[in-house]
Amino acid sequence: MGNPLDRTCDRRGALARSAACSLAVAAGVAGLPRPAAAATLAPGFDARSLDELRAALGLGVPAVSDQVTLSGPDVAENGAAVELSLATTLPDATRLLLVVERNPAVLSALFELSPAVVPAFVVRVKMAESSRVWALATTADGRVHAASREVRVTLGGCAA
Amino acid sequence: MRVLMAHEMESGQRRDGDGRPIPAWHIHEVVATLNGRPVLTIRFGPSVSKNPFLRFELNGAQPGDRVGIAWVDNRGDSRSAETVVA
Fold first, then answer.
1. Alpha-carbon distance B70 to B41, whole Å?
2. A159 in contact with B at a CB cutoff of 8 Å?
3. Residue A117 DSSP one-character state
4. What tens digit of pLDDT does each residue of B39-72 get?
5. Are residues A91 and A119 in contact, defined by beta-carbon separation less than 8 angstroms?
6. Which tens digits make up the pLDDT trace of A105-130?
7. Which among B11, B45, B86 has CB closest to A109?
8. What does pTM read for this prediction?
């Protein structure tokens, strides 16, 4: 056993060449200050259900909206890397959350939106088992807008 | 932008050969900067896949703009890199 990537990746950050960007790398160790927001979001990342997540982050009941989109496979062969795309067209959206209902910790990723970035993201997540997946968009008025889909997983991605 | 970060992303759910839990070790925050200014903060839970992949699009980035990515994991380790928009 042993990860073949260990030797090459152990001490180097890796930034893949983007289709639109030429690479001029200045790699270094950045000591990022942890904003206060990180501490308040921590309970959200421990939440084991959508209800717990809503309670932890003070979110209202999500309402399905066609201004939030979530796309991904109907069936994922490999639960260790399920590629999901989430986006919103809501003009005043503040955050996008990716939630996998049947994962031990349901909140996979949280995107803090800004005008400088298109509110559309692709990310790969682990899914323990077949599950409903949610994209939640929060808006400045405190409302939660949602899209969801079922993703079937043939080989679960959380256990070795 | 396509980003690939080298990281084990141990969820904390797995056990080793002796049945002991493998501690969670994963990136928990990613910050993208445009010409040094933070434009995107992403928080990862333990279930983001190993060697996290991200795809997103910047609004109005111009050739010559510097785009940076920095991540911090739950052990406090961090890495960053920059690229220039072609």
1. 10
2. yes
3. B
4. 999 999 999 999 999 999 999 899 999 999 999 9
5. no
6. 999 999 999 999 999 999 999 999 99
7. B45
8. 0.84
